[in-house]
Task: inverse folding
C-alpha cells in the first residue's frame, strides 16, 4: 500500500454537525482507498473543557478556543466550519485568505449576499471549497440522479419535495442559545427555508436544473418565544413553515414545502419527480430505498418498485457490507468526504461548491422575498 | 317489514358516472334499511340504441332521448344529472322549476357564476339538492372527519391534498368528443381544477373550514390537441396541472396540487392533516386504510398507525361484510345515496348541497384567477 | 340485446355467505354480458320471519323453510348451499339426484370421505357443480396465476401461505350456535384447517400443483368453551391454529399456517411464491395489489413492484370502473358467478368443481392426521 | 475524562466479519463512554500480504499468520474469532486455556457437541465469553424484547421468524473456497440452519424462552456444485432451505423458515410475535422500524403502528444522531461491543455467552435430526 498523503484538519465547532463530520473523517479511510489520509489535528470551541472532551472522544490532537488560531495555523490544510450560520462568512473568508481548503456546513450563509462574498473569497483565493449538503450522497439519492442523467425519466413534468419536522410545536421551546439557535433569525438567517428547504433546493437544482420563478408563502405559528440568550419573551422572526411553487428552466413545475409543525414527522425529507417515461420517489425516513415506476414495463405487471439500495452495483455500496444490509444517515458524510478527498487529490473541487450553494441561497432569498411581497419573484 | 315508499328516478346520462349512480341505487336497498325504495324509472341519452342497452343492463323501465321529457315527467321524483359539465345548469334549473329532487354530478358547474344560478334555482324552488362529491363517504375519509370533529388532532397547522393522474401525457390524446370532453374547456369549464381539485377542495372545506386566500399556478403541458369534435388541431385551453397554496380561516396553511402528468399515479387522491396532537393521512389508491399518528401515545411505541377501516364500529362498515374484508370505490356512491334518501325521508338535504358545491366553485374560480393574474386572491 | 335465458336459483341459507352470493347474482348482469340471467327464485331458512326479511331485502320471489322443497322444486335450476358444513352433503346429494346445478360454499364437507360421496353424486348425476373458493377470483390472485402459467417465475422453489385472524382469543367466545358454529367440531368438521387453510390449499393446488407429503401440528389454545347450543362448558374439539409444511410434486417446499389467535390480523390471507426468475406476494388486507419481483429487471432498478390491479388489461377489471379505482371482497363472488354462468351456458363446469374441492379436503384430512399422529403423511 | 483502561485485541480472520468487528471497535469509543479503550493490536490471516493490507486499512499494530501466536501473545487481552466455523473450536479452546476473553462469530460451532466442548472450556477457564449474534442489538429488536419483558403482549400464542436470501439460486455458484465455504458442509457444519436460522433461534430463545419440541424439513435444491477447493463437481451436503415448527415451553407455537432460494430477498430476516394483547413485527430490510399493534387502543383508530426507532428514549439511540435519522446494520456490532466492554469492566459476561449459543446449537441439531428422521425431536 502506497504511503498516503496526510491532510490536516482544523474543525471549528463541536456540536452535532462537528460530530457527524469528525466521524466521517475517522471512518473514510477504512472504507475508501484514497490518496489523502485525513488527520484530526485541531478542534476549536469556545468552552475549553467541553472542547477538550470532544477532542479526547474523537482523537483530535489539540484544541483551540479561538478559530483564528486554527485558520492561521500553518499545519492545517483543511478548515471545517461547523458553527452557527452567522459565523460562517467571517471564518470562511479568513480561511480562504489563509489558503486553506474549506468545507462549510449548510446553509452556506444567512443570505445570498453573504454567500456571494464567501464565494468570491474562495474563488479569488483559488482554494478548494465545498458545502455539506450531505443528502446528495445518500446512495438512493445518488442513484436517482444517475437515473435522471441516463434519461430514464424522459421529459420532466413535476418536481416535488418537502422537509417536515415536528419539534417546535410546543410554545415552550425557546429561541436562541446553544441548542435552539435555529429559531433565532439573527443567528440562523431564516427558519425552515435556510435550514431545511435549502437541502431540498440543493438537490432539486442538481437533479432538475435551474429554477426561474418562485411564488411562496411563509408562516410563523408561534409568534413569541422566550430567548435562551436574554431570558425574555421576544418576537419570533423566523419562518416556522414555508410553501412555494416554481417553474424550472426545463419547463417543469415545482412544489416545495417545509415546516416544523407536522406532527408525526421527525425528519421527513422526500422528493418525487414525474417524467414522461418514469417517476422516482425518495424519503429520508427510509433512506435506503428508492421508489421507481417505469411506464415501459409490461402493462399487467407495471408498478412502483421499492428498490433496496444495498447492492454493490449501486452508488457507494460496494464500499460497505453485503446486499440487503442497510447503511444510515451518517454514511452520507463519509461519502462526501471520500468524494471531496478524491477530487482534492486531483486539485479539483467536488460539488456542491460555494458557488453552487450561493445559487441555493439565491433561491432561498427569492422564496423569502416572494413570501414577504406576496408575489412572484424571478431569479 | 313496512312497505317502502317508492322514489322514481330519472337518470340523465349513460356514461361512467351514470353507471356508478345506477349501481348505487340498485344496491342501496340490499344493505341499508331505508324508508325510500329507489326505482330506476327512466334513463335518458341522445343515442337511442345505446340508451336502450344501458336501460336493459341496469333495469330502467323506459328510455328517453330528450332530457326535457324526463324533467317534465310527473312520475319522476328525482333527477340525476350525469352528463358533461356544460349541460348541468340548464337541466338542473329546469328540474328545480319542475319541483324535482336533484342529484348532480360534480363539479356542479363550469364556474361559480353558473353554480350560483343553479343554487338559487334549487333554493327558490325549495327542492332537495345534492352534489356527488362521493369521496366524502369512503369510510376512511368519513372516519377522518369524525376524528377531527372529536378534537383528536387539536389545533390544525397544515392541510395538504393532491390528485395525481397520468392519462393525458401522450400528445395523441384528443380533446372534446364523448370520451375526452374533460380536455375541452368549453364543455368542462376547466381542467384538473374543476375535475380533480374540486374533490380535494370539497373535502378540505368540510374537514378544515373555509379558505380565505389563495395563490395558484397552472400549466398546460401539451399546447395543442386534435379535437374529437372538429377533427382539427386546436389550442388546449384547460389547465393540465395546477398547484396552489392557501390560508384557511382557522389559521392553517394549505398546499394543493393536481395534474394528469404524474407518471405512475392513476388516481392518487391523498390528503394529510397535521394537528397539534395528532395527524391523519389518506390515499385513494388504498382507500380502505387511514394513517393516524397520535402524539399522546407512549413515546417508545409511537408511530403512524395503519388502520384497516373494515370494522363494524367504523363509518358505514356495519352494513357490509366482516372485519378485514375491504370494500371499494363504488361503495362511496351507495353510501351517499343512503344518506341522501335517509335525509330526504325527513325532508332534509344531505350534504354537500348545491350551495356547498357553489363554495367549492368559488374556490376553483379563485384558483384560476390567481393563476392567470399571478397574485393572491381573497375569497 | 338478445333475450337472456333465465336461471332460477334456490338459495339454501340466509347468513353471511347467502348475502355474498345473493349480492353476486344481483349484480353480475349489470357488469357481465352473459347468456344466462339469474333469477332469485326461492330462499330457504329455518326461521320463517327471518327468511322472509332476507327475501324482501334481496328480492327473492318466495321463501321455504324446508330445503327439500327447494331441491324438489321443478322451477329451480340451480341450488346454492350456504349453510353450515354438516348440512352440505345431504343437500348436495339430494340436489344432484334431482338434477340441479349446484354451487356449494367451502369447505365442501367436514372431511374427505364426505366430500367424496358428494363428488361421486354430482358426477353420477352429470350435473354442473362448483365450490365457492372465491379468492381465486380476486383480480390480483387471478393475475398471479396467469403470471405463473406464462412461466414468468420459472422453476418454483417455495410456496408460502397463511390465513391469520384474531377473533377467538377471548375465552368468552362460545362454541356452537348460529354465529359460532365454526368453533364446534360436530358442525364444522375442523377449525382453521377446514375454514381457513382450505382457502390457502385450494389456491396452492391451483397455482402450484399437487402436494405429495405433509407434516403438521395443531393447537387448541382455549380448551373449554361454553356451548351456545347446550349452555354448558364443553371441551373444544377444533384446531384453533395449524401449521404445516409439505412437498409439492414439482419439487417445491410449502409452508402454511393458520390461526384465530394472531392479534392484529382480521383476515390476513397471504401467499408468496418464489421462483427461479421471479417472485409474487399477495395479501387479502390489500387485495387490490400484487407484489412482483422480476430478477430480469436491470440490477440497479430492481425491486418489488407494487402493482395496483385496477387496469382494464388485468383480470376482470375491464368490467368495472377506471384505472386506479379499487374493487373489494364481494367482487370475487360476482366474478365466480360470471365464470360459472359462462361455462354453464356451454354445458361445462367452471373450476373448482366438487372433485377439485375433494382434493383440497384430502389435503385437510392429511394435515389433521399428521398433527394427530405426529408424523409425515403421504397423499 | 478519566484515563481509560486499554484492552488489546487479537483479531483472527480478515474477512467480512472481521471488517464488521474491527469497525465496531474503532467506533465504539466515539459514541459510548466506556471504562475500556479497545486497541487493535494484531490481526491474523494466512495470506500475509492481504493481512498486512487489512491491518493498514483498520489500524492494527501488527499482523500474524499463525493464530497460535495471537492466542499465546501476553499482550493480547481479547481474542476475536472471525474465521470459518470449522476453526472456531480449536482457537476458542486454546484462547480459553490462555486465559483470554473471547468473542466468537456465530454460529459458535458446527454442531452442539463441538459447541459444548467450547462452552466447557471457557467456563472451566473462567474467561469472559461472548457470541456475536449481533441482531439482538438492532435498536428495534432490543425494543421488541423490552416490550415483551414489560408484559405489553400478554400471553404469547405465536412466534414466527424467517431468514430468506436468494444468492445461491444459480447452479454456477461453487462450494468451498474462500468466498463460498458456507456451502461446504465440512467447513460450515450445515447450510441455512447454522448460518441463518441460528440468528432466528438466538433471538427467539431470548424473546420467547426455551423450545421443547421440533419438527423440521430441509431441502437441497442444487444437488451438485463444483468445489472451489478441488475443482471437481461434488455432491452438496448442506441444507439449502429449512422449515420447522415447534412448541415453546410457554405454550406458544413456533414457525421458522430459511432459504437461499427466495428470489427478491437479499437478507430478509423477519420475526412476528402474536400475544393476547399486542403483536410485534420486525424486518431486517427496514431494520430501523418496529411494527406494533396494541389491541388496547381505541377501536376506531386501532392499527399497526410503524415505529421509526430513532428517538433518544429508544434503545441505544441516544448515542447516535437525532430523531428521524436512521442507523444501519453495522451499528449492531458497535452496540454489542459496547455492552461487552461495559459488562467486562465489571468482570461480567454480556449475553449471549457460549452457553447461550450452545443452546442455540442444540436447537439446530434437533432441526437437522428431525429433518433427517422425518419425525418430532424433543429437546
Result:
Amino acid at each position: 500500500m502506497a504511503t498516503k498523503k496526510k491532510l490536516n484538519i482544523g474543525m471549528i465547532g463541536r456540536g452535532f454537525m462537528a460530530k457527524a463530520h469528525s466521524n466521517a473523517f475517522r471512518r473514510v479511510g477504512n472504507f475508501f482507498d484514497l490518496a489523502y489520509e485525513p488527520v484530526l489535528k485541531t478542534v476549536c470551541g469556545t468552552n475549553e473543557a467541553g472542547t477538550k472532551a470532544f477532542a479526547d472522544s474523537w482523537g483530535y490532537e489539540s484544541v483551540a478556543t479561538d478559530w483564528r488560531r486554527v485558520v492561521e495555523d500553518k499545519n492545517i490544510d483543511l478548515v471545517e466550519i461547523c458553527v452557527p450560520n452567522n459565523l460562517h462568512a467571517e471564518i470562511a473568508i479568513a480561511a480562504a485568505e489563509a489558503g486553506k481548503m474549506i468545507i462549510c456546513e449548510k446553509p452556506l450563509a444567512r443570505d445570498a449576499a453573504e454567500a456571494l462574498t464567501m464565494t468570491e473569497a474562495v474563488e479569488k483565493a483559488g482554494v478548494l471549497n465545498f458545502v455539506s449538503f450531505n443528502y446528495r450522497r445518500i446512495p438512493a439519492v445518488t442513484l436517482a440522479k444517475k437515473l435522471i442523467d441516463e434519461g430514464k425519466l424522459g421529459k420532466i413534468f413535476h418536481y416535488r419535495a418537502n422537509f417536515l419536522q415536528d419539534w417546535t410545536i410546543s410554545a415552550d421551546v425557546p429561541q436562541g442559545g446553544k441548542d435552539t439557535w435555529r429559531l433565532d433569525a439573527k443567528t440562523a438567517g431564516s427558519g425552515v427555508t435556510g435550514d431545511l428547504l435549502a437541502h431540498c433546493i440543493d438537490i432539486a437544482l442538481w437533479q432538475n436544473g435551474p429554477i426561474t420563478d418562485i411564488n411562496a408563502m411563509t408562516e410563523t405559528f408561534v409568534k413569541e418565544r422566550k430567548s435562551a440568550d436574554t431570558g425574555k419573551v421576544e418576537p419570533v422572526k423566523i419562518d416556522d413553515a414555508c410553501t412555494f411553487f416554481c417553474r424550472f428552466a426545463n419547463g417543469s413545475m415545482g412544489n416545495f414545502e417545509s415546516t416544523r409543525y407536522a406532527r408525526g414527522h421527525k425528519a421527513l425529507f422526500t422528493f418525487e419527480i414525474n417524467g414522461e417515461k418514469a417517476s422516482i420517489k425518495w424519503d429520508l425516513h427510509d433512506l435506503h430505498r428508492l421508489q421507481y415506476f417505469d411506464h415501459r414495463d409490461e402493462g399487467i405487471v407495471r408498478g412502483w418498485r421499492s428498490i433496496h439500495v444495498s447492492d454493490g452495483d449501486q452508488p457507494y455500496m460496494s464500499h460497505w457490507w453485503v446486499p440487503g444490509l442497510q447503511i444510515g444517515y451518517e454514511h452520507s458524510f463519509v461519502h462526501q468526504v471520500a468524494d471531496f478527498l478524491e477530487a482534492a487529490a486531483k486539485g479539483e473541487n467536488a460539488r456542491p461548491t460555494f458557488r453552487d450553494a450561493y445559487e441555493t441561497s439565491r433561491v432561498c432569498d427569492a422564496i423569502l422575498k416572494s413570501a414577504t411581497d406576496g408575489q412572484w419573484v424571478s431569479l
In short: Chain B has a mean pLDDT of 97. Residues 157 and 252 of chain B are 4 Å apart (CA to CA). The radius of gyration of chain B is 21 Å.
